[in-house]
Amino acid sequence: MNNDIMKGKWKQASGSLKANWGKLTDDDLQEIDGNLEKFQGKMQEKYGMAKDEAEKIFNKSHA
After folding, report:
1. What does the angle CA 21 – CA 30 – CA 58 come to, to the nearest 5 degrees?
2. Which of 12, 30, 46, 51 could form a disulfide with 23 if both were Cys (CB 3.0 to 4.6 A apart)?
3. Distance from the first to the final alpha carbon of the chain
4. pTM of this structure
5. Cα–Cα distance between 58 and 13 in angstroms, integer?
6. Whether pLDDT at 57 is above 70
7. Residue pair 10/34 in contact by the 8 Å Cβ criterion
8. 61: nearest Cα among 2, 32, 25
9. Under CATH, which architecture does the 3-61 domain have?
10. What percent of the chain has pLDDT over 70?
11. What does the mean pLDDT of the chain come to?
12. Model confidence over 26-36: pLDDT tens digits?
């Protein structure tokens, strides 16, 4: 996937993620910026979530 397309999809998905996962702040989402590893880390930190579970959520947000 083209980096520009990925960034565009991330911007669309980040609003939905914030609505569904309220512990994620605007700063968190800006820091993550579409990076799977950063997303997994934030979900582990804020929700105690396993990496594979966070990856599933990340992938759904980019569908």
Report:
1. 50
2. 46
3. 12
4. 0.80
5. 9
6. yes
7. yes
8. 32
9. Orthogonal Bundle (1.10)
10. 95
11. 88
12. 999 999 988 99
